[in-house]
Specification:
Helix content is 34%, strand content 22%. The chain has 434 residues and is an alpha+beta fold. The strands form six sheets. A six-stranded mixed sheet has the order 1-2-7-3-8-19, with helices on both faces. Strands 10, 12, 14, 15 and 16 form a five-stranded antiparallel sheet that branches. It has a four-stranded antiparallel sheet with strand order 4-5-21-20. Strand 20 and strand 21 form a beta hairpin. Helix 1 packs across helix 11 and helix 9 crosses helix 11. The mean pLDDT is 97. Bound molecules: zinc ion. The site of zinc ion has 5 residues, from helix 5.
């Protein structure tokens, strides 16, 4: 059955209200990392509305803890679960795909800094605002719109299409790890061989992801010696020590960013390695040398370095700084959260070529390829399976920032590309209109 790109685009266009309403409801379903259930429940309904039956994949750290990509979690399992729904045609004649997206969103920061409540989405000048709108509930909604658009044209994919919604992407990635582990071991209804391509609709502005850095989280706990400030010399200040530790780590960051130390894929990225001091806790009040200080950092490194090696280099730097400052300082390093190796993605496999060509049919040009300065769950597919994978999602602004928003026009283009991809990759067959 032949379908023109213009027909697919028109079918997506006709679903704009569904798209905006679904994304708005999804954003309203507040889902910070560690407490994703409202978004999981919302997605369960949205998938059932499409006639799909989502299966819950419950996070079980015990089952995952010996896997190489397991990250020491920041939150307990608490019965949290991923959702995996599959469209399985009666007769499968094409090639299959999985759309994989994360349900969790990052903290909002003070609500007073937002133009509107971060979980009360609004549409303004073609952008939908709200925490998680861009990163990455919009991309997940695009995949639903793509599927629904084909249905509205009286067809459905002629191969398995998976919709996998995972938790905990922003802090450790153990959600996607749980799904892939379950697929590899056929713990649920689906198995790994059901899928021949994976697309992660992260908001990378309609580009294809060619590589991503490795990421680890580190907590540095410093203990000093408290004293009255009148006799400050008797004390040892762990907060001031923490400032020096961060300054030395920033020197390491500059070394890794130096042009001669960059791998080819990151040559044109202005500042590929970012060490971020994200949290600092410590001190009692202004007139005492404080007792303790904890720094929370996010560190990154190139794909040719393992997380173990990065941890070793960073630990040595921190311990050297602390030893230089004062022998009375105690330091403890805790690696919790991200344990993500970097990855390089082959964009010349048939699946990824088909995706690039689908984008070209919709927009008139092949998509750009980008090397990303953050991590994504694409690493689990790349490092644990033979399934070709990339990220491809809509244009968003201020993700992880204030007034995060996503472009509705871009969502429509991405949904059209996804539907075109399903036509070209999975093939389509007629369905009885319901
Ligand atoms: Zn994301």
């Amino acid at each position: 059955m032949r379908l023109e790109t213009t027909q697919i685009a028109a079918a997506v266009e006709a679903l704009e209200t569904y798209m905006v309403e679904t994304l708005s409801g999804f954003v309203r379903a507040e889902s910070p990392s560690g407490a994703e259930e409202p978004a999981a429940r919302f997605m369960e309904h949205a998938l059932r509305d499409l006639g799909l039956e989502p299966e819950r994949i419950v996070l079980d750290t015990e089952q995952l803890k010996d896997l190489p990509l397991f990250a020491c979690p920041c939150f307990p399992d608490n019965g949290r679960y991923n959702l995996l729904a599959r469209h399985v045609p009666e007769q499968s004649t094409g090639r299959s795909v999985m759309f994989n997206g994360h349900l969790d969103v990052v903290p909002t920061g003070p609500q007073s800094m937002w133009s509107q409540h971060p979980f009360d989405p609004v549409v303004k000048d073609g952008w939908l605002y709200g925490r998680g709108s861009g990163d990455m509930k919009a991309g997940i909604v695009c995949s639903l719109v793509a599927f629904k658009a084909l249905r509205s044209l009286g067809v459905e994919p002629a191969a398995t299409v998976g919709f996998n919604a995972v938790l905990s992407e922003e802090i450790d990635g153990n959600g996607s790890l749980a799904t892939i582990h379950a697929l590899k071991n056929a713990l649920g209804k689906a198995k790994l061989t059901d899928f021949q391509a994976a697309i992660i609709p992260e908001p990378f502005g309609e580009t294809l992801l060619s590589a991503q850095v490795g990421v680890i989280w580190l907590f540095i706990e410093l203990t000093g010696r408290p004293a009255h400030v009148a006799y400050m010399e008797k004390g040892v200040n762990p907060i001031e020590a923490g400032i020096a530790v961060v300054a030395d780590l920033k020197e390491l960051e500059a070394e890794w960013n130096a042009p001669e130390n960059r791998p080819e894929l990151f040559k044109d990225v202005p500042h590929p390695i970012n060490f971020n001091l994200g949290t600092i806790n410590g001190g009692e009040w202004n007139s005492s040398v404080p007792c303790a200080c904890t720094l929370g950092l996010r560190l990154s490194f190139y794909p040719d370095m393992s997380p173990e090696e990065a941890r070793r280099i960073v630990s040595e730097r921190v311990r050297a700084t602390v030893a230089r400052l004062n022998s009375a300082l105690e330091v403890k390093l805790r690696f919790e959260g991200h344990n993500a190796p970097g990855s390089v993605f082959d964009l010349d496999t048939p699946a990824m070529r088909t995706l690039a060509q689908a984008h070209a049919k919709v927009t008139g040009a092949e998509p750009e390829r980008i090397a990303c300065t953050a991590t994504t769950d694409a690493r689990h597919f790349q490092l644990m399976t033979d399934i070709p994978v990339t990220c491809y999602g809509p244009i968003a602004k201020d993700i992880h920032g204030i007034d995060e928003c996503v472009s509705i026009e871009s969502m429509k283009r991405v949904a059209t590309t996804m539907a075109q991809f399903m036509v070209d990759w999975c093939g389509v067959q007629k369905v009885e209109k319901t």
